[in-house]
Amino acid sequence: MSQSNLSHFNNAGEAHMVDVGDKAITQRTAICEGAIEMLPNTLALIMAGNHKKGDVLGIARIAGIMASKKTADLIPLCHPLPLTHVEIQLQPQVDSCRVHCLTTVKTNGQTGVEMEALMATQIALLTIYDMCKAVDRGMVIQGLRLLEKSGGKSGHWQHVEGQN
Amino acid sequence: MSQSNLSHFNNAGEAHMVDVGDKAITQRTAICEGAIEMLPNTLALIMAGNHKKGDVLGIARIAGIMASKKTADLIPLCHPLPLTHVEIQLQPQVDSCRVHCLTTVKTNGQTGVEMEALMATQIALLTIYDMCKAVDRGMVIQGLRLLEKSGGKSGHWQHVEGQN
Amino acid sequence: MSQSNLSHFNNAGEAHMVDVGDKAITQRTAICEGAIEMLPNTLALIMAGNHKKGDVLGIARIAGIMASKKTADLIPLCHPLPLTHVEIQLQPQVDSCRVHCLTTVKTNGQTGVEMEALMATQIALLTIYDMCKAVDRGMVIQGLRLLEKSGGKSGHWQHVEGQN
Amino acid sequence: MSQSNLSHFNNAGEAHMVDVGDKAITQRTAICEGAIEMLPNTLALIMAGNHKKGDVLGIARIAGIMASKKTADLIPLCHPLPLTHVEIQLQPQVDSCRVHCLTTVKTNGQTGVEMEALMATQIALLTIYDMCKAVDRGMVIQGLRLLEKSGGKSGHWQHVEGQN
Amino acid sequence: MSQSNLSHFNNAGEAHMVDVGDKAITQRTAICEGAIEMLPNTLALIMAGNHKKGDVLGIARIAGIMASKKTADLIPLCHPLPLTHVEIQLQPQVDSCRVHCLTTVKTNGQTGVEMEALMATQIALLTIYDMCKAVDRGMVIQGLRLLEKSGGKSGHWQHVEGQN
Amino acid sequence: MSQSNLSHFNNAGEAHMVDVGDKAITQRTAICEGAIEMLPNTLALIMAGNHKKGDVLGIARIAGIMASKKTADLIPLCHPLPLTHVEIQLQPQVDSCRVHCLTTVKTNGQTGVEMEALMATQIALLTIYDMCKAVDRGMVIQGLRLLEKSGGKSGHWQHVEGQN
């Protein structure tokens, strides 16, 4: 295994923004998930608000979508990309006492959108933390991972439960 | 427990940036942790780079520090705060095959810096994902949580293992 | 009336960020209003969504709050200010077929927050335009104005209907 | 008219960034207008500065152009777009005691640039407010609207006076 | 001379945002200079525009002021600071065929504003490059340096010609 | 030589973002250089850190890459561009007691990337200043210039020593 496996470094071991100028423009999709665990009462507050007022999940969704557009500002070696689609599903799960987040991001571009999908997921979950922290400081964000990607030279990849 | 527990909403259930104008300016600290799990080979690559060239952790640390300064841009109802200190420790842990991140943020202000510390931690871990994803798409971010906070009216809070 | 009335220019007529270093830190408030006029059907769609799903006004409110924090990024000679409170009320008005926006912004600082309140109002209204433009391109934003300000050396100011 | 007319929401009524990945890339143009009304003396100050020093309109023009590039940062569900042209005309109108703003924005892209043109117009007018507010707090922004758009599937649209 | 002289690194040699929480808030000033050298014809074009139309220096001044507010976004370990004053003087110097830039920045804060003053100077000069590059690609930015600073624990410092 | 040589102004002498909508998309490259001069002891500290800990140059490189992505945010009339490659080489030069910076930026686009390459160079050098200023306030940034560009209608251009 050589150092050159980490493509964000050149032969001298110095970071660079990898040259993608010769890559084809293809349709690319990335799907990510993550969750935030909380106390039962906190989840109940969120679920009450979701249907009437105090819409925590609606605000988290907007924060996630907006953050996906800032990925290249935040991740040092990310290429800027014009996204064509962002969708965030936030699902309260009473049994496991958490809100689950599933994010899909698409572009037509020369690099993939995994980072944009992870960013959207993460900021949506952090926004839930922010809005509920006054009643529950112990919330934990868990299992932020890529589930699937397609497009580009490396093609299709899918997370397999119990592997990777 | 009433809806009014979620202070980010007014009586009409509408989101607002909470009025902190009458709060005292006190020294505030927040300490957070999180980790990114990966394949043994990926961790080996990171650890090799850390001591010679291809410094993944050094870049992740910078990304996390820079992100902490953008917290109010990303989290909709966060108050902008002039941070006085940000420290990020990234520790490879061979036994659990992960990089652990411990972040401390301080300010003198009218609100706490929990979100800034969580943001720094999260973006540092996402940056590790970005730099290693070409060799390991299955990395997972786990256990992003607040460990401790001090300052302000609500005073000192500490995470207790096994509780929340 | 001399040129020096426009304090954003020095004696040579060159723009500068005015020196506020010797001003006292006082509590400052600004209240603004504005409205977006639309077709009756458009307003009906918004009002339906506000109570069930498709929450246009909730998203506009978040966009306005977030924009208030970016005022100094967008208005060239504005001083950066740490806001302590932002509140946006969006009120559908069936008779006049429009959504009215009333915004309150506060800070403890050396300059006022009129621009932050106007910015929040304007971006909230533009976000309504964005979300409804597919069904109504002819919407118009009207009457964006300061209603009241307090704090600072110039003290209290209030808009009087029919005067300026 | 059904809820689904508001394309920024999916079938569950949740906001998303609409998928434009299959839309053709076409040349798109949007033309907007707006105005800021003020006291005669304020307009006189601006007009004096425009020709000699204290160039309020020149600064407002720059602020508007720069803001057009940040539209996707500010409007939650806007797609990021690489603009190819922005032109802002600021015209003092003595009879109506106001400055009129006419903005043209172009791109080659998958979505239109109406929001970018409205944003540029609005921030240019707000910048005029900022620079003149010390002498005239009662200025009002009026009539911010789309005048014309072309390109894309929905084709050409033009504002007709007295309609919409 | 020990490594610890570079305060941006902790004892482990890892970058951090230095803790300034215990520093006094004092009035701080920084004055910087820099210049851009160009062909005589380019300088003539700028000087013509400065008095009539095509105001290169006015736009460069605005760009520099706006950039000073983004210093903490761009310089990784800079503390965010609320600036109280920014002044940029751009002086065409026919004999040396260049535009000279002199920038003053002030704040009341816990750290100095040297970086903000250097940033404003640099972006003002780069903006001149941008606007004139179509007629003169060989322009060179020279002599960007701190001239003077005051405030804070380290007190007053002044550049002495021929020394450092 | 007419005013129209400065393409960033229209016939009325007003600034605009030049219309590039009809330009061909070609591969474009820009190469820039610049340097920061310092005391021998400062350079020694940097060189020590570069190989062990306290990696000033690694952090400066990241800052430069990230800044290149913000060029259109900072330079008023720059077109936003999706960069495909950024590479920054920072070379300590003991004889001349300075760090030299050589930057290459590429895109496939309708306008060139000279400004992005200059921006990356400048922010990398300013970051070195920031990290070393506690031990050497007299550092000077010199010789920031374009060395070479290719692509686009104006084609290849190369700096010739002793000429412009």
TrEMBL record, chains A, B, C, D, E, F:
Q: What GO molecular functions are on record for this protein?
A: cyclic pyranopterin monophosphate synthase activity
Active site per the UniProt annotation: D130
What EC class does the entry list?
lyase
A GO biological process of this protein is:
Mo-molybdopterin cofactor biosynthetic process
Q: Which residues form a coiled coil?
A: none
Query: EC no.?
Result: 4.6.1.17
Q: Which UniProt keywords apply?
A: Lyase, Molybdenum cofactor biosynthesis
Which biological pathway?
A: Cofactor biosynthesis; molybdopterin biosynthesis
Stated role: Catalyzes the conversion of (8S)-3',8-cyclo-7,8-dihydroguanosine 5'-triphosphate to cyclic pyranopterin monophosphate (cPMP).
Q: What is this protein called?
A: Cyclic pyranopterin monophosphate synthase
